[in-house]
Amino acid sequence: MGSQGITNILVAGIGGQGVMTAAEILAESALSLGMDVKKTEVAGMAQRGGVVTSHVRFGPKVHSPAITSGEADVLVAFEPAEALRWINYLKGSGVAMVNTYRQSPPVVSSGLFQYPEDPIADIQGAREVHAFDAGHIAIKLGDRRLINTIMLGAISEQLPFDTEVLEQSVLKRFAHKSDQLVELNRIAFAAGREAAQGN
Amino acid sequence: MNARSPVDTDKRLFVSGNEAVSLAARDARVKVAAAYPGTPSTEILEYVSRYPDIYSEWSINEKVSLEVAIGASLAGSRALCAMKHVGLNVASDALMTQTLIGAVGGLVIVVADDVGLSSSQNEQDSRFWGRFAHLPVLEPSDTQEAYDFTRAAFDLSEQYQVPVLVRVTTRICHVKGTLVTQDAVTAQPQAGFVKDPSRLVMVPGNAKGRIPLMHARDEALTEAAEASELNRVEAGERSDLGFVVSGVAYQHVKEAYPDAPVLKLGFSYPVPVEKIRAFSQQVERLILVEEVEPLLEKELKAEGIALEGKSVLPKQGELTPDVLKRSLEGGTSAAEEVKSAAQPELIAAAQEVFPRPPTMCVACPHLGVYYTLSKVKNTYISGDIGCYTLGAGHPWNALDTCISMGASMGVALGLDKGRQPEDANKKVVAVIGDSTFLHMGMQGLLDLTYNKGNATILLLDNRAVGMTGGQNAPSSGINLQGEQTAQVNFPQLVEALGVKKERIHKVDPYELPTLFKTLRDETKIDDVSVIITNQPCVLTERYKAMQPLKVEADDCTGCGNCLDVGCPAILVSRRETVIKPNGKEKELAFADIDTSACTGCNLCVNTCAPDAIVPADSLVANGYEALQSQNIDNLVVEVK
């Protein structure tokens, strides 16, 4: 936790990966424990494949909705190059949870820019980094949209509240849809949690 | 309805500023709400549309939305309209005269400034409109205040018979925070529309008589601002430093300087000068924190109040805690120190990460248009506001201007009439989407035909307001509530605006040869042509995904043609440099398709000479089906 008892979580990824939903679920968990919460995102054109970040801040009283660079307790990166891009938001003692599944934009495909050779290696020395292929797990489970549940499972041990609180917040979202979706997300959450421990 | 009870956390809602405004509209018993979609204000009306007691609509533009709200107010009902900052430029014609009439039923205009330009063509400060139009301005700082102030705005509007501006910003609209709502106001019988030509018919003789009343209202509102609880002093331990601040910047100040006294302005215009003067005497150094323009700063300095503002703070963008610290303390902020104390090579690596500019969606029908435009030489392409503005970017580079809603039409005419001799052979093309055309493009097209212009218009009809998330418009034939309604007929409309019937073509933008030929033929003709594309936005239910595609690696020759489509699902698997028979080097890029993202629009197939792009096998096993066939264990094993 940071100053004045505030926890800062930065969720970063690309439009369409479920960054905002993941942030929403983190916020709901903190709310369910009676905390003050603010969540902000730079969206707008984000659903067009642009970078999406969502700031989640919770604690006794939250003023500014934006996390200051160098103050994030946890960085949840849905893509490895995004982990590198946002690493400076993470405080020295912070933890980065990174999906290693790469997504190259057209500017890289067409050769205008290079994808960093090994973004995980770049950040590994500097901060505590857990990295695993959540994209691969999601595809194995049959739905790319599961990446966010997997990533939430992965960071569930890094938060100032019980893993079960977060898991319940995830599953609650699907309760009114179908039992199968609840079950699928339970599996995805557990898979993420397990994968993070192994890395 | 929840009563205010800050202790009872169970009663808290967790909503965005936009949703808070909509809840305030509900609880203030608004009868009519209108808007045109625009980031960051779009969601206000989407939320309002959930309340059946409120008539709500997508208007064709912001001016019409304000006029609808004005009519409702004159009918005796509470009315709200919402818009992004540039929307109020469009609506201002109505605003500048309505201020003389005032409000009957509460009339509130929520205007959302995109501070930091997350999705806008400029950054402007809507507080100016309060000064220009003699209207009070309220500035919430968070979700709770977005609700409280919108409700207060209706009361203020009726008390002083004045339209009220509620100025919000992106960091209020799109931030979620906690909210406790209050009981709805009790419904009160209204008198209904009252004929009063001397007030409601603004001809010179009548308007002259209203101007002194407006000035008297200014004075009354100044007294109200001085007395308002929305302008409050928060004590702090420090005496060396204090802040006057409005909007979300208040939250940033509290974060960065929790010990400093603050005069928080919620009712920021008319300016409560005396309250600020009294506060200024309590601190040694007074900083005025206002996002965007030094508006209050100039006004307060003219009143002889000593303070610092834009001499130390940036004149654009958000005034976040680290910006405040860096500006006021000089040198590096705490965060900067963390960075520099860390590894400089890591900072460098982070800064070098490739950009991810917004792209068009996989299978977007605009991809075919821009692929075609990128291959047509010798043109000026005047663009407009919407997803298709992205055509200015890589790999198409096929847009030469973008200014304001509907501008592509008039700009095309100006490029045509103003051309210099060296541009005599250039073809003028304009690109505009369906909802932008209906918003403000129709008049420009009429001007083009009336004045015998020469331009080829690409009217990209995807039946939705794409950039803001696929909202409905008259081109959808579906209203805000999702009901079927009149759908505009574009060929008939443009013909009625003076385009000759034989110059109007409807084409499928996925059929590249037809699109290319039509565009080439029409640009050769010295007249106004309109090419209407007819495929729906892929974000809407109208779009039907087809079997995805893949690349047969053995057949791909590395020509890279398909990459020129700009579809985000097309990737490069490897690159090679070969020496051609003439001795020149050639870069080859072998393509791959992300089959799980592809929806089979077939555009890229058109560009592939060796027919290497073929239908993919069925998608990866669907998770839900796998569960039903009890393969869960297998899946988990594979995961490990």
Account of the 3D structure:
The complex is a heterodimer of chains A (199) and B (640). Chain A has 199 residues and is α/β, with parallel strands linked by helices. Helix content of chain A is 40%, strand content 23%. Chain A has a 6-stranded mixed β-sheet with strand order 2-3-1-4-5-6, sandwiched between helices. In chain A, helix 1 crosses helix 6, helix 6 packs across helix 8 and helix 7 runs antiparallel to helix 8. Chain A starts with 6 loop residues before the first strand and ends with a helix. The mean pLDDT of chain A is 91. With 640 residues, chain B is α/β, with parallel strands linked by helices. Chain B folds into 4 domains: 219 residues, 3-Layer(aba) Sandwich (Rossmann fold), CATH 3.40.50; 99 residues, no CATH class; 168 residues, Thiamin diphosphate (ThDP)-binding fold, Pyr/PP domains (Rossmann fold, 3-Layer(aba) Sandwich); 90 residues, no CATH class. Chain B contains 23 helices and 22 strands. The longest helix of chain B has 24 residues. The relative contact order of chain B is 0.07. The N terminus and C terminus of chain B are likely disordered. The chains are: A alpha/beta (199), B alpha/beta (640). Chains A and B meet through helix 1, strand 2, helix 2, helix 3 and helix 4 of A and strand 8, helix 10, helix 14, helix 15 and strand 20 of B.
Descriptive terms for the model:
heterodimer, A: alpha/beta, 40% helix, 23% strand, B: 640 residues, alpha/beta, Rossmann fold, 4 domains, five-stranded parallel β-sheet, globular
Low-confidence stretches of chain A: none
Tell me about the largest β-sheet of chain B.
Answer: 7 strands, mixed
The strands making up the biggest β-sheet of chain A line up spatially as: 2-3-1-4-5-6
* % residues in beta strands of chain A: 15-25%
Topology summary:
The complex is a heterodimer of chains A (199) and B (640).
Chain A: E1 7-14, H1 19-32, E2 36-42, E3 51-59, E4 72-77, H2 80-86, E5 90-99, H3 106-109, H4 119-124, E6 128-132, H5 134-141, H6 147-155, H7 163-175, H8 179-197
Parallel strand pairs in A: 1-4, 4-5, 5-6
Antiparallel strand pairs in A: 1-3, 2-3
Helix pairs in contact in A: 1-6, 1-7, 5-8, 6-8, 7-8
Chain B: E1 13-16, H1 17-27, E2 32-35, H2 43-48, E3 55-58, H3 62-74, E4 79-84, H4 85-101, E5 107-113, H5 127-133, E6 137-138, H6 143-160, E7 164-169, H7 170-173, E8 175-179, H8 197-200, H9 204-227, E9 231-234, E10 241-246, H10 249-256, E11 262-265, E12 267-269, H11 273-280, E13 285-289, H12 295-302, H13 321-329, H14 334-341, H15 344-351, H16 366-375, E14 379-382, H17 407-417, E15 427-433, H18 434-450, E16 456-460, H19 490-496, E17 504-507, H20 512-524, E18 529-533, E19 549-551, E20 570-579, E21 585-593, H21 603-607, E22 613-615, H22 623-628, H23 632-639
Parallel strand pairs in B: 2-3, 2-4, 4-5, 5-7, 6-7, 10-11, 10-13, 14-15, 15-16, 16-18, 17-18
Antiparallel strand pairs in B: 1-8, 6-12, 9-11, 19-22, 20-21
